């Protein structure tokens, strides 16, 4: 198209030069008209966006972008899929994991996505999914908003180009999480879940601080610097360990993330590991929001051995985070009532489904299931290691 | 841009009408020129493709698309990452799993990708990653080639718009796998691995037939019709069960895929499950090709419980597939020498790394790790169920 436009400029120049001689003008104008008509055709072949849809239809037609999601209801997996449009999810860090998580939630038709990043797209990011070479130089938030709104215009996108570890960035982050304009009658904060997809310790601590202050459930994710391991973790203030309760697992396993960005040293990364971690993260997000299956408290991915460790971490009564200690106190007050409700629900399920217990959990090594805890008839399968770290 | 062009046509019309009055012409021409300049700017903001690179550099600069992959060498994961450019991978079925697998391999800089599909992109596919609404109506092979070549022009792409379950389609499929022009001195067929990402039994049987005939290692993948489970499986003709050796697991678990496409009935699907399965598939592909970690013979993904069963399946001496029986005979001849080599290698490793033996393979009918088995100090971790099905 550029060459076409250049020629048009030349034509206009010769038109100008022929000004004293109007006899040539008519043919010049005709020539210009045919050029414009050609350009119009070219412009028409450019991307057409799909229009917004009012309701999620379950109709099985090729033109319905939601038919395969609404089918989750007919398959008995989800009671009411369309509830997904009520939910807001905040994604902090739009890198190799966060961008894919954002795309998955967008394609699932999430109600509202809040995106936070301060970085720009580089060619060095092209070994992970999502960003495209033509977006190099754009902010990750702008590039993501562009791609995501093209994919699904039904999703309300809000993007924030900021660093949450700065004072100003943290304040904006907090106020954006508090904003309840999308669903004014919602309890708690303005979002249903925060997904941390950042690549450094400071940013994780900032998300932890914000979520502890707001009593906001969040999920943490991470990928090792050698690119072959990753994890996701559910954090419910007061109920589970917060990020400050325990030495972060990445540090505990011998990787100091603060050294990763040393000059001239870059961490390895793979689209596979990051895609798997994003998939596990968003799958657990869907399970949490749409209430199906079991949400994993912690799930690791060791890709060299295809090993997926699970565990649970209890809050640390000596946690250094004051907001965490507040949430722990609140949780201890509501805990007896909650546990009674869980036991009543489990008993009702045992009565309605005439099956024996699936198995009794085995005990080994790292640590063991507390025998005094209610029996897990649901069970995360005989294969899982459950570590209840009491700190 | 369309509105802009329409106005330009209007301008040209008024220019024509002002022909008898040349005094207005100069200003009209100036107006047109500024319009063209504006259009030129718009055209310049259109996608720019990245250029091909000669060698994979490990240089840590933002403009290097391979820096984070070459870092796998420095991290001690891969001996020689650049070998990836020698490999050809065929992907059959460019749907929810195949398209993402293709994108991952493309971003990893695989040498050559062969893509097979006969379907077109529909809006109903938008709940899975990869295809975009503006590609609706294109063949999946064309749309994929367009996106993948923009992402990484270094990858040699060959796409085949055909149905491998037809006689003609199967013949083209076979001859394309045999074609060794990319690496003429390669042993065996012209590809290093076939990835089956199809959604029906007949297509899987066609891939099985081709791979048995060509003695071609392949990996099978699948996602359940309720969208919440999936699996990958490694098939080495003669050495592991082929797809005809055992009743396919999808059928064995009570799902008849042939009913899925019944009129008015559509299977559910999720970008999460398909993204995870694609990630596990390509991660195992990388492990196989670049020789790191352990390739899983079978890996399931039960997303409701985040449970990942593994098992191995031996070939069935009564398999109905004649080519499989041929491969089994060949394998039995080389087996003693191969096993001796494996034992020698393991003994060498035990001498160099002072660790106990990994474990001895037990044989039984779907069941769990025997308590009397040697302790798994390595390995696929105490958490996994290992089922060795002897058929």
Quick recap of the structure?
The structure is a homodimer of 391-residue chains. Chain A is α/β, with parallel strands linked by helices and 391 residues long.
The stretches of 5 or more residues of chain A where confidence is low (pLDDT under 50) are 250-258, 356-391
Mean pLDDT of chain A: 85
The main sheet of chain A comes to: 7 strands, mixed
State the assembly state of the protein chains.
Answer: homodimer
Strand arrangement in the largest pleated sheet of chain A: 3-2-1-4-5-6-7
**How large is the count of helical segments of chain A?**
10
Number of strands of chain A: 9
Q: Which structural class should the secondary elements of chain A be placed in?
A: alpha/beta
GO biological process, one term (chains A, B): protein ufmylation
Keywords (chains A, B): ATP-binding, Metal-binding, Nucleotide-binding, Ubl conjugation pathway, Zinc
Protein name (chains A, B): Ubiquitin-like modifier-activating enzyme 5
Domain THIF-type NAD/FAD binding fold (chains A, B): 66-320
Blueprint of the fold:
2 copies of one chain form a homodimer.
Chain A: H1 2-17, H2 25-44, H3 67-74, E1 88-92, H4 98-107, E2 112-117, H5 140-151, E3 156-161, H6 167-178, E4 193-196, H7 201-214, E5 218-223, E6 229-235, H8 249-252, H9 271-290, E7 298-302, E8 312-313, H10 322-352, E9 388-389
Parallel strand pairs in A: 1-2, 1-4, 2-3, 4-5, 8-9
Antiparallel strand pairs in A: 5-6, 6-7
